[in-house]
Specification:
homodimer, disordered C terminus, Farnesyl Diphosphate Synthase, mainly alpha
Chain lengths: 289, 289
């Protein structure tokens, strides 16, 4: 089965479990809304690519890990779009969850998706209890405090920001979770896979900065120019457009160099290159005023 | 060690883990603020009481379960106090988290506490992997969708409310988690313990209705009269004060009758009676205008 089909099936199965019995109908609908359409599913794709590169010894565990990671990512988008954070009306080309439903339902959707992510991994313990618990520990570390995406978002409420901790937690954390969870689901050690995830995360951050600075809202499918509006650090502001593109390519070369020795090493390098092509803004981009 | 000391130590250890390294300082501070002062810690007290009644075979697992349950309860209070829900300025006699910090930090505090709860249980897997996973599954079922406290809160966004599903999820869920997690942490089956949790939850709901209707905000330590303001169902409105007190006592008698056979059966019955005394508003209460 192609990766995207595995990911969609795993996410759909998790959401279906959360809608069984007689749940409150609007919240049940909002859960479904928050995870579709899928978009690139870039984090679970990386996760499954690493699992495959390591032999994909327990596909059911890898699928659960992919679904759990994507549920956390979707939860973070729903919460980040709320008026108290980015106040984004649009996400993936359609109204954000709080615009389509309500702020209370958006908050509960995020909370429910977080819980569901850990439940999906706990269910997968039937395949390998110790591995499932390690997957839960990795996902928790990269989601909550002190070093996960919650911590990353928390840095935005500080007067003095530790920029390296900020970027590592805000954008890097779920990419590190992706590479480490893929390895663990396939029976490998997590630790050697941290650097690849961290470097993909850095590349993603620079690419996101480029898109935020260069694209309009219609192309992005979400509000553009948010970094300038919220006075957030941005690689384009620091390095210029060409400098940021050079930086992106340097990081991706480092990412490829960091891939641990494994049967699917060449395939993973190709995946990183493909991700790079997808991430790098192609000319001509329209500069906003 | 007395139960309250076990609970405080377990909660404090979890929060300390979430503040290690270099987390964003204000969010780290908000986590601590959200879980103190402890108040009655009624859910983890029930959990540990059940574990003790069942022999408390793995105290470290029971302590982890108690901490995880209390972290979820505190997360729900922080999110429920937000302006989009109860808009509560005061909680446990001090400013609510969003008043003391900010709305973004309150949302992130709740998210971080949810993640931390599952991480605490995953850490405890070193004592018994299968039991830790079952604890995670129970806590997830009683926290998220379709039947946990998120679902309970979700019912408040519905035009037509399934009242029984609403109360079971909104108030009952974490009491069922308390009795079932206590039993599982001590190596017993979860299922026979559902009814005791459900009945304590019902009793708590009626007691909460009585307090909300009869007490002023100063006595409650949080805004009073919220059910009338938000047009939520309330046992006092339906049965009158004396009727609601009779109903509370009937439910507690049923709770005691439902206690499964175990070494600490008599101790548990005494715990339920003591909970009843603590819950039942004592005369004279001051009726609000």
């Amino acid at each position: 089965m192609p990766l995207h089909a595995r990911i969609e099936a795993a996410v759909a199965a998790a959401i279906a479990d959360g809608q069984s019995g007689s749940p409150p109908p609007r919240l049940a609908s909002a859960l479904q809304y928050a995870v579709t359409p899928g978009g690139a599913r870039i984090r679970p794709t990386i996760l499954l690519s690493v699992a495959l590169a390591c032999g994909d010894r327990r596909p059911a565990l890898a699928d659960a890990a992919a679904a759990a990671l994507e549920l956390i990512h979707c939860a973070s988008l729903v919460h980040d779009d709320l008026p108290m954070f980015d106040d984004a009306d649009v996400r993936r080309g359609k109204p954000s969850v709080h615009r389509a439903y309500s702020e209370p339902l958006a908050l509960l959707t995020g909370d429910s998706l977080i819980v569901m992510a850990f439940d999906v991994l706990a269910r997968a313990a039937v395949h390998d209890c110790a591995a499932a618990v390690e997957l839960i520990r990795i996902l928790a570390a990269r989601t909550g405090m002190p070093g996960g995406i919650c911590a990353g978002q928390g840095w935005e409420s500080e007067a003095a920001v530790d920029l390296s901790a900020y970027h590592r937690a805000k954008t890097g954390a779920l990419f590190i979770a992706a590479t480490q969870m893929g390895a663990v689901a396939a029976g490998q050690e997590a630790e050697p896979w941290e650097e690849l995830g961290a470097r993909i995360g850095e590349a993603f951050q620079v690419a996101d900065d480029l898109r935020d600075a260069l694209y309009d809202s219609e192309t992005l499918g979400k509000p553009a120019g948010q970094d300038a509006i919220h006075a957030r650090p941005n690689a384009v502001a620091a390095l210029g457009v060409q400098g940021a593109i050079r930086r992106l390519n340097d990081i991706l070369a480092g990412a490829i160099a960091s891939i641990p020795s494994c049967p699917g090493e060449a395939m993973l390098a190709a995946m990183v290159r493909k991700t790079a092509e997808r991430l790098t803004p192609v000319a001509p981009v329209r500069a906003r005023a």
